């Protein structure tokens, strides 16, 4: 089952399989554990969280451009 | 789901360099303990200080404002916030809105200074007229207004939102370009120059950028998630940020080690050799007889606008009706 992911701030959308780990999701979005955060239903999750069907997922790039 | 290493509640963050998970409550306490420790370790704030916090509407200044407003009770100091309306379209409208909401939520007095009100132009207009890059004009104007407000407020320190990632990257860039005197300005604090400039402190000196984001989010401090439209993601700073964070993932703690050692060795770097003098127009810090703000505005409008800026800021400060300051650090 696919889960939709919104990438902030660039506005991209990704689709991933349920069960993927948050850390892998960050890598898919071109980030790592330091430069991005995964929010599920608006709350941050740790890198080993596995995305579930029905989760509202956002990947946020936390490094600002200065 | 991972559990908090302290209380066993659901974890929201993994602190890689400490190998521990934290829940939302313990994460917030952890960031505040880092800020508290930095304030004490680097002697940033003393009891009775008036601290000016410039807020851009972004996550880092939101974090500084929330943390300092909480710690002000413990340390016995006063916090005043400043937002500068740069006039950068929709971005500035939203930034101002977020800053006002944050200050209201925390009950911190806020001064809003409009660049257009002082100069007659927005930052993009000033940059076009001066034929200079927007970010360079923006930086110059912001530095001037922040110092001006701090002086007029009788503030003892200006608390900037630079986080550990920012400072690691600025020092790496300065090292690469061998602008070593710039590194001497990147420590946890700079001193006041009596009568001319208020010293700056960096409470987020040891707080990682990701931690700053999570803190602002978890404390529900209003902040703007958007970036300024003028940000250049291909700049050397932004490329270095990606590299240092790849290294941090492989070698957890490398940023903290770098910054702690930099703080110890900050005096070993050469200091800038610019003379310190007073601008003949506005009376504030200058390296010659005219400060860069008065020079820029004179070139664009025919008049140095420092004196007008002082007038506008004085009346904004007076409208806050704060207790008068007799013995602040900047005064001679």
Keywords:
heterodimer, A: Ubiquitin-like (UB roll), 1 helix, 38% strand, globular, B: 332 residues, alpha/beta, Rossmann fold, five-stranded parallel sheet, two-stranded antiparallel ribbon, 13 helices, 50% helix
**DSSP, total strands of chain B:** 9
User: Any idea what the CATH superfamily of chain A is called?
Assistant: Beta-grasp domain
Chain pair with largest interface = A-B, 21 and 37 residues
Calculate the mean pLDDT score of chain A and round it: 93
Q: CATH class of chain A, please?
A: Alpha Beta
CATH architecture of chain A: Roll
The averaged pLDDT of chain B comes out at: 95
Within CATH, the superfamily of chain B carries the name HUPs
Q: At CATH's second level, what is the architecture of chain B? A: 3-Layer(aba) Sandwich
CATH topology name of chain B, in short, is Rossmann fold
- Content of β-strand of chain A: 35-45%
Beta-strand portion of chain B reads 5-15%
How far is it from the N-terminal to the C-terminal residue of chain B, by CA?
A: 58 Å
What is the makeup of the main sheet of chain B?
5 strands, parallel
Our Rg estimate of chain A from Cα atoms comes to 11 Å
Q: Helical content of chain A, roughly?
A: 10-25%
How does this model look, in words?
The complex is a heterodimer of chains A (66) and B (332). Chain A has 66 residues and is mainly beta. Chain A has one helix spanning 22-28; strands at 2-8, 13-17, 36-40, 43-45, 57-61. In chain A, a hairpin with a 2-residue loop joins strand 3 and strand 4 (43-45). With 332 residues, chain B is of the alpha/beta class. Chain B has helices at 24-41, 59-75, 89-106, 115-119, 123-130, 134-153, 164-176, 180-183, 209-218, 236-250, 254-265, 292-301, 306-320; strands at 13-15, 20-22, 50-54, 78-85, 110-114, 157-159, 200-201, 277-278, 285-286. The A-B interface holds A 8-9, 32-37, 43-49, 60, 62-66 and B 1-2, 11-14, 16, 21, 58-60, 165-166, 208-210, 212-214, 217-218, 225-228, 231-233, 235, 237-238, 241-242, 245-246, 248-249.
